[in-house]
Amino acid sequence: MQGFNKYYPPDYDPSHGSLNAYRGKHALGDRARKLDQGILITRFELPFNIWCGTCNNHIGMGVRYNAEKKKIGNYYSTPIFSFRCKCHLCDGWFEIQTDPKNTRYVVVSGARQKDEDWNPEENGGFAVHDTEGAAAPVDPLAALEKTTDAQNHLTNVQAPRLEALQSVSEQHNADPYALSSKVRKRFREVKRVEQRKQRVDDHIKGRYGLPASLSLLEENEATRKEAKEEWQRAQRALALEQSNKRRKLAVDVVSIPTLTSKHTRQISTSHNPLTKNPIDSLRARILENTARQTNPFSRPRETANKDGNRVVLGK
Ligand SMILES: [Zn+2]
Fold it and tell me: How high is the pLDDT of residue 218?
């Protein structure tokens, strides 16, 4: 409770500063008595079994000492601490240090560590080798050759390449204003052409009532030719269709007078009704009808035979 139980003597007032400063004491108390030597007294617990180097007694893992802790160096940015302990069975001292590189403690002096570390090689595993330290001894000639090669590569390949890249970069970045204005000018021209094309397209779409989403083809020699071929093809198809329609009409017209085919034959003899042209057939029908109206007696009498077929009995 050293840090909490504070006794304020009657002659103390706040102008004296802190109580510790007034009493001439450190906040860590007696543990800081060797702080001027860089030593702090801490409680240290043995991380492994040792034999004391002075009395040769075995000291078990986990025995605690008031050790003098001192920073003795760095491994990269990690401090290396040493712990100096006095043997509780004799007056001898031993020293243990941290080993940040291998994340362990090592006995430096005054004792022997009992080797109980797990050894993978002894137990059928694979040893972890230090890849950093034991490199092959350097062959000075090979090293020289390597250095010369590297130098040659630098002067013959790397430097010219770098210079070329640099000059290209300078060329591109020498005058950003001019480059930018050139690009923008070009962009404006392209945009004007595009807008003109768009107007023409819109006009065509408006004229023919085409949907606005329809994209029209670029007008050039190939598309013009294609469009012309398409137009001719459609024309031919239309002509064919019309002629078909006309032929069908003709067949209809000539097939109607078959009722009176015998009579018709009297008027237009020696004509095959399928081969004569429709105007002739029409003319024949009109003449026949006229004749029938003017002379009702010339009308042939018709009756049906027992099969339902009409037969002409006589004139
Ligand atoms: Zn001892």
Answer: 79
